[in-house]
Amino acid sequence: MTVRGGYGSGVLRVDLGQHSTWVEQLPDEEVLRNYVGGAGLCLYYLLRDVPPEVGALDPEAPLNFMVGPLTGTPAVNSSDWSIVCYNVLIPYAAGIGLAHGHWGARLKHAGYEGILIAGRSKAPVYLWINDGRVELRDASHLWGLTTRETERRVKAELGDETKISVACIGPAGEAQLPGAMVKADRNHGAGKGSPGAVMGSKNLKAIAVRGTGVVPLFDATGLVDTAAQWEANIGLGPSAPGHDPGRQSVIL
C-alpha cells in the first residue's frame, strides 16, 4: 500500500462462531482510493466476502464497522464511523448507518480501520479492544440491559470511565427487532438497516475500545492548518470577509 497517510495497518476480523480474531491487511491502493474509508470500504468488504443469498440475520451475514482516513485526526468532525449490514427489512439490500461520538476515533487510535464480524456466538459476548490486544468476554450479565446501562457497567468492569468508548445494543437489538440501533457514547447511534438486530442475532452485546496510538499522516502540519481554516470558514458565505476557498483538500 502506497497511500501516504490516514490509514492504519489493517482491519480486525472476528468469527464469533469460532471465538477467534485476527488482523487482515488492508487492500491495495487502488481499492482504498476507489472506496475511501467509511461506508465505501464497508461495502467493498460486504461485496467481496458474502454471497447475496445470505439473510440479514443468518450467522454468515456480515456486520462491518469502518472508520475513514480522517477519523481520529484534527480534521473537523473526524470521529464519525460507519456500520454496514444486510438490511433486515429489504432482502438483498445493504443498510448503511452512520454515527458520531468518540468510538470511531478510539478504534482508529487502537490501530484498526474497521471490524468485520461474522458468525454467531453460542452465548452472549462482548468484544474488548485494548490497543493491539483483543478479547471476547462473557456478556451474559449484560443481556437485557439498556444501552446506557450496558456502557456504564462495561466501563466499570474494565476499570476505565474516561478513555473507553462502548458501542452496544439494548433489548430491541437482542430481540432482533427491525429498526434496532447500535448506540455508542450514550447518545450516538446508527440505525439504517437495523444493525442492532444483526448484532443481536450474533449474540454480540457490545464492542468496547480503548486506543492510545496516533494516526499516521503524510503532512500533519498541512492537515492541522487546513482544519483550522475549515473551522474558521464554517458559517461564512463565499463573499464573507475572511472566507478562504483555498486548501479544500488534504493529501494523504
Overview of the structural elements:
This protein is of the alpha+beta class. The protein has two domains: 201 residues, Aldehyde ferredoxin oxidoreductase, N-terminal domain (Aldehyde Ferredoxin Oxidoreductase,  A, domain 1); 34 residues, no CATH class. Helices cover 25% and strands 25% of the residues. It is built from seven helices and twelve strands. Strands 2-1-6-3-4-5 form a six-stranded mixed β-sheet. Strands 8-7-12-9-10-11 form a six-stranded mixed β-sheet. Strand 1 and strand 2 form a beta hairpin. The chain is globular and about 50 Å long. The two termini are 12 Å apart. The C terminus is likely disordered.
**Portion of residues in helices?**
10-25%
* CATH class category of the largest domain: Alpha Beta
Return the structural class: alpha+beta
Low-confidence stretches: 247-252
> Strand percentage, roughly?
25-35%
Summed up, the helix count is 7
CATH topology of the largest domain, by name, is Aldehyde Ferredoxin Oxidoreductase,  A, domain 1
At CATH level 2, the architecture of the largest domain is 4-Layer Sandwich
Outline the biggest β-sheet.
6 strands, mixed
Number of domains: 2
| H/E topology pattern | EEHHEEEHEEEHEHEEHEH
Number of strands: 12
Side-by-side strand order of the widest sheet: 2-1-6-3-4-5
Distance between the termini: 12 Å
Overall pLDDT confidence: 90
The CATH homologous superfamily of the largest domain corresponds to Aldehyde ferredoxin oxidoreductase, N-terminal domain
Computed over alpha carbons, the radius of gyration is: 18 Å
Global outline: globular
